[in-house]
What we know:
Layout: H1 2-36, E1 38-39, H2 42-47, E2 51-52, H3 56-63, H4 66-98, H5 101-116, H6 119-129, H7 136-143, H8 158-185, H9 190-198, H10 203-231, H11 235-240, H12 252-262, H13 266-293
Antiparallel strand pairs: 1-2
Helix pairs in contact: 1-13, 3-13, 4-8, 4-10, 5-8, 8-10, 10-13, 12-13
Organism: Nonomuraea terrae
Membrane topology: Multi-pass membrane protein
GO biological process, one term: transmembrane transport
Amino acid sequence: MWARTRSYWPYLLIAPAVVGGAFLLLYPLFKAAVISFQHFRMGELIRGGAVFVGLDNYAELLTGTEFWEVLLRTAVWTAINVVLIVGLSTGIALMMVRLGRGLRLALMSALALAWAMPIIAATTVFQWLFQSELGLVNWLLVTLGLESFQGYTWFANGTATFAVLVVLVVWQSVPFAALTLYAGLTTIPAELYESARIDGGTGWQVFRQITFPILRPLFALVASLEVIWVAKCFPQIWVLSQGGPDDATTTLPVYAFKIARVLHRYDLGSAVAMLTVVILAIALVSNLRRMVRQ
């Protein structure tokens, strides 16, 4: 009897955290799903009495052109960032394996500090760096002889703003991915690399035939996490550009927020949020299934 009671203790101890976490995660999702099927605007927010409208909100989104434009922009935004993050992180992880202890510790500390920097603080720093008159980036480019960047306004051009946001998100995301991949690299037996070198294998051949196949599940996991984090990226975009100029940086999360905040279309904003969740869930599940099969 006592042994049976003791076996339940671990579950009883973690139960409050599990229940609280499930409530905080699932209730907002459930509430957004309900609102997406209702006529829910400022009036309903104040006095209640939202009316069920079925799939009308989804039909309005899917039959319009704006949603598809934002979806395409989000896909491009996600693809560019994830490719850069995974590529740079892989290079940094491979470099850390070859560095001496002191340099490796210094690089890992720098990555950890960059990762620990609050998102809003980092975004504000990037605003200063790319400021038109006093920004460090413009000063450096002009010093290098690129006079056309004298007083250049980065945040007045959609492509330039998009590029600045890519640099910001990549800078914030690389530390986690690089440290994760480095941890995976340390688990590969050194004998495999020594055998490959004896056989005359080049660096690319060693990576393609040894490193990548062994760490394929880890690469898939890191890529999946980065897809989720980049696709749902909101604070950096909102603080830096609020989706502008001319909606050039409006992705699905920003689009949902703008609809709900500016137009007070909480029903339509919830529908965008739910479609975002469904798209990300499909992408994640398919990738994880492929990873498990391998």
